[in-house]
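Second opinion, please. Pick holes in both lines of this record:
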Amino acid sequence: QVQLVESGGGLVQPGGSLRLSCAFSGSIFSTYDMGWYRQAPGKQRELVAVIKSGGRTNYADSAKGRFTISRDNAKNIITLQMNRLQPEDTAVYYCRADPPPWKIVESSWGQGTQVTVSS
């Protein structure tokens, strides 16, 4: 069973940076597509960035040019480097693991880490 543990959230001033990490265990990490999602109060959870098992990345428009997703298949982690943070980036950030097509299992979610951007 896949387990995901996020870390790195916190309080940061507008224009600042944070680096989130997500540790993966319980299966073969390199075969999973991984992603970061966020949910602000009163809003639906939304995609921030994904990185495929092969390394291809996709970003939400709001993240392009400011956020960078990466993965380390040796350490079974993904990271989200967030720069030039703004108050609208305030949300709980979740890590998600999507299994390869041959695995008939659901995606897994982490417990989330709070990011607050405020002066």
